[in-house]
Amino acid sequence: MTNQIESVQDSHVAPNLHNFHHSADQEWQHQEPLIVFFIFFGLFFGGILRQVNQVTKIPYTPMLIILGIIFAIYRDDLGFIGDSIKIWSGINPHMILFIFIPVLIFESGFNCDWYVFKRALINIILLAAPGVFIGSIFLAVCLKVFLSYDDISWYGALTMGSILCATDPVAVVALLKELGASVQLNTLIEGESLLNDGTAMVFYQLFINLEKGKSSSPVDIFLGFCRTSLGGPLLGIFMGILGSYWIRRIIRDDVLTSTVTFIVCYICFYLAEFSFLAVSGILSIVVLGLFMSANGKTKIYPESEHAVHTVWSFAQYGCETLIFLLTGVLIGVEIVGQSTIVMSDWFKMFIFWIFMIIVRWLMIIILMPLLRKSGYPITRSEIYVIVWGGLRGALGLTLSLMVLVDQEIESIRLKQLTVFYMAGAATLTLLVNGTTCGALVNYLRIIEVTDVKKRLVQNSMRNMINVCNDKLKKLKSDQFLQLADWNKVEKISGLDELKTEMYRSQEGVNISQRKSTYAAINKKELLNEIRFRLLRSMKGLFWENYESGQLSANSVKLLDEVINIALDDTQNPLKLWDLIFINFTNLSYLQLMFTINNWIIIGIFKYFFQIKNNFQGSMAKTYITHHLSFVYEVVSCFIICAHEIEEIQNYLPLSKSYIEEVGEELQNSVKLAEHYIAELSDNFPQIIKSIHTKRAANGLIEAQKHFLRNYKTKGYIDDTDYVQFRKRIDSKAVNLENMQFDWVLPTFQSILLQFPIFSSLTDDQLKLLQQNQKVRTFETNEEIYTKGQPFRNIYVITQGTVDDKITDLFSITLGIGGFLSFANCVSETDEVSSSTAVAVTSVKTNCIPFSIIKQIMKQNRVFEQKMYMKSMIYFVRINPENAGPLKVLNENNLNDYCEHAEFFSLVQTQNITFEHGAYLIAGQIKDSSNGNVFKQFSYIYPSSNNHLALEDVYVIKFMGDIRHKVTVMDSTAEEKGYLKYQAENQEKQKSNVIEMQQMH
Fold first, then answer.
1. Distance between CA 288 and CA 250 in Å, rounded?
2. What does DSSP say about strands 843-849 and 793-799: parallel, antiparallel, or unpaired?
3. What are phi and psi of 580, to 5 degrees?
4. Taking 60 as the threshold, does the pLDDT of residue 11 lie above it?
5. DSSP 8-state class, residue 901
6. Which of 634, 664, 671 is nearest to 649 (CA)?
7. How far is CA 715 from CA 85, 539, 699, 702, 719, in A?
8. How many Å apart are CA 524 and CA 526, to the nearest integer?
9. Which of 293, 626, 813, 828 lies 20 to 30 Å (CA to CA) from residue 224?
10. Which tens digit of pLDDT belongs to each residue from 424-460?
């Protein structure tokens, strides 16, 4: 009987269980699409609000909060939208922490300005560690004493205080980006928000355990605190090292590079929170992001960097949108729908919001004596912004929800009040503080625009209008645009508005001719602005060189930091070389390592490793090679970029005397850098030779990459061919990076065979040079030849450095393989030197009689042309008044320009045209249209006119327009300069025609 009953019961239970599981499965299948729908539904409304923000400038995140609250209140009337909101409102807060928070915190740290963060690190730690502790105690006192919450314990109040102290980095970063505050203030507030999330989490775990009654000794509490707060950063550094090591070995794989950053981010967080380590996951992510900002960015392949930032920007935007929308939903559900919260709690919440601001102000005042001793100075106005900008948001709300679902906490009142106050604090700070912070910044005038900046903006507008006017003229001549309404075109494009604004400005009505004056502006302010702009331009040039493969990661990091340090001190003269030099190993120490490399014991050590591990070179040799490569790369790039900045100075729309003053400061550093390069070449010539070889090979590899990218873009090759070619090139780049070079000094014979200037010589001509050369040495500061004095020899440098002074203001520094000098070889002044050559270091040269060079020039037409082409730079500097736009080009750009030119030797009465201009080396030539006569060492402006040779002529004809390097300083600089010189030339031609007419 019993068995029958049991069987009957089982028969009833089984169908019930089946029906239960079936209904549960159906419910879950119904919820799955709603969960996914909420994500894209949220992103859809986020996209709409993002566009509203762009038009109205209403802060983005508060709008998301409001929208979430509205959706939560009316969720019962929204159909399946309301159903998806109900599902997400019941999400476990741990899921928010695990899914969204790592992305938001890592992205903020990854995009943080590491230099500014490092400079303000002590202040950030003060605000984030002692500041959170002080704030937690004060807020607990406010809750217990001033608001009389006797139904919660002191440990509960401290738990609430630690949660309410956590400012939200996502909200803060979004706000600061919209306000446009200074980088220093942004980084201080953002850095504090990043770190205090971690410290707030640590204090939260400490106080919540005490609230739960988990007894621990003070020693255990201290050790646990140290493990959590220190172990997290150590784990972050370790994961950053692993991630950087992996990323460094990824070549041109955007997908894998982006994936690795996500891998290290989430694995770091999960190892911290869920493994035996039991450390702070948030602190580990903060430090990981900062480590990747400092070291990881430069490990990313330059072509992949943009893709990585794009992926993380999207991830950050998606998580930010969803988490703030969800925050609004949870606020609406927990506050509006919470029946246990009485009216007095609502009133106290508004009072508590005021207490929060006061407590944050008190915390900063207490720490102010320490804050003033390090980092950037903090003004009183900035203190108000720091206080008012302490926004609460998603992380604090997540922690409060974790308290709500924690079954070990017995006090229901504590759970409800924690969520209520955190939700209220997030709502009020985001809606009130967030929307009014911009007005506060403007009222306090924290973002000041100096008079010189205003003037430069006006000048930039004027330049843009000039460019638009030129473009408008070209468009009007386009046969396919003849029916366009040009008044409407100007109105639609905004050109009409720009012109109106300029006409109303104090600059005057003639926007194309009127020049701005800076006489009324303070000299110190002008110098500060000039230094600031030149330094920012140099910084841009350094990163351009890095992205083009001409600068390594370590080199660009050093130069970038040097510029950042200088930008912090634009009130004083530039001393860039001092900032660079302190990072280098002393030359005497390198000499010691060089000596160690030749010791017999090290030689045996080297031989052993060559056999066992195929290891090339000893440790001493490896250290010397790597360090000197780094040093040479840094110094040479600094010199090159500084020379390019010289061109920018000519177009900067500021007082020329002040520009020259700052330019002289920069040139002082350049001279010291050039002297250091000379010392390196003198002490380690064989290593410098290897470095030159490696850099030249790298330049060719980068040229191949550029060529392939260009061909792929134009459709000349398909993707398959592109991938195959790129794999070959990338393998060459890897081999080059790992290649070791022999330390062998170049001989005179190797110079003759390898250097381009001698490449056209026949075997007999090379033999003639070798037979007639002799070695000559010169001591430091000894003159090799003197300007205006007769010379009899040409010199090829095989060791040391020489300064060839063309004028008092210009000289060329030459090292191994340098030729002294091209101008002397083509001189028509009876063998009189056109410059003065001085040995910067001890110099060894091969001396060749001038008569032998002349003899070979007569025999070898190509060699003669090269001599004349190379000599142009000398004649441009000697005769700058007739050099036209060439006089503003630096040495490298002049040489590049000459590469796209042809040499012509014309006989009398022969005609030629110069569509892109020319430079006359010898003879006279006349423009047949206007009669303008050009003499030797003169620039001939581009025109389609015929030019008649009045006598035998040597002329360099350019094959392209002058288009020297466009910089971040002024994108229209070169066009302005060219138009200026063209206008000057037209005026000269007009005056010549008038004079000729008057003569007749």
1. 19
2. antiparallel
3. -75, -45
4. no
5. E
6. 664
7. 49, 34, 24, 20, 9
8. 5
9. 293
10. 888 888 878 877 887 887 788 776 666 666 776 777 7
> Considering just the CA atoms, what is the radius of gyration of the chain in Å?
36
Helix 719-738, helix 685-714: angle, nearest 10: 170
d(C-alpha 66, C-alpha 59), whole Å? 11
CA 914 – CA 934 distance, rounded (Å) = 13
In one-letter notation, the amino acid at residue 837 is A
Tokens matching residue 258:
């982006």
> What does the angle CA 654 – CA 655 – CA 656 come to, to the nearest 5 degrees?
110
803: which 2 tokens?
Answer: 């300064």
Q: What is the CA 416 to chain-centroid distance, rounded?
A: 47
Within 142-253, residue ranges assigned H as helices are 154-165, 169-179, 183-211, 218-248
Overall average pLDDT of the 185-212 stretch:
84
Cα–Cα distance measured from residue 565 to residue 115, given in angstroms and rounded to the nearest whole number: 9
Which of 165, 227, 172 has its CA nearest to residue 196?
165
First to last CA, the chain: 143
Q: What is the pLDDT of residues 376-393, one digit of tens each?
A: 888 888 888 889 888 887
Q: How far apart are CA 401 and CA 334, in angstroms?
A: 10
CA atoms of 790 and 136, how far apart (whole Å)? 84
- Evaluate if residue 970 carries a pLDDT over 60: no
| Distance separating alpha carbons of residues 779 and 839, to the nearest angstrom | 7
- Using alpha carbons, select from 175, 139, 174, 193 the residue that is nearest to residue 360: 139
Name the phi and psi angles at 845, rounded to 5: -130, 160
Can you read off the two tokens belonging to residue 885? 């736009």
- Single-letter amino acid code for the residue at 887: K
Give 137-142's long-range contacts (Cβ < 8 A, gap of 24+).
Answer: 137/161, 138/359, 138/362, 138/363, 139/164, 139/165, 139/355, 139/356, 139/359, 142/352, 142/355, 142/359
Alpha carbon 221 to its chain's center: 43
Task: Answer for the pair 132, 199: CB distance below 8 angstroms, yes or no.
Answer: yes
**Partners of 934 in the β-ladder:** 925
From CA 331, how far away is CA 341, in angstroms rounded?
A: 13
Q: Do residues 283 and 235 touch, judged by C-beta distance below 8 A?
A: no
Collapsed DSSP state (helix, strand, coil) of residue 582: coil
Q: Are 331 and 68 in contact (CB under 8 A)?
A: yes
CA pair distance 193, 184, nearest whole angstrom = 14
pTM of the model: 0.71
One-letter identity of residue 269: F
- For residues 251 and 737, what is the distance between their CA atoms, to the nearest angstrom? 13
d(CA 284, CA 233): 5
* pLDDT for the residue 975: 37
Q: If you count them, how many residues does the chain have?
A: 1000
* CB contact at 8 A, 844 and 783: no
CA distance 202 to 73: 34
Could you write out the three-class secondary structure of 61-97?
HHHHHHHHHHHHHCHHHCCHHHHHHHHHHCCCHHHHH
Name the β-bridge partners of 795: 820, 847
pLDDT at 659 over 70: yes
Listed ranges 131-135, 832-836, 855-859; the one with the highest mean pLDDT? 131-135
Helix axes 973-999 and 619-651, enclosed angle (nearest 10): 50
Judge whether 272 and 284 are in contact, CB under 8 Å.
yes
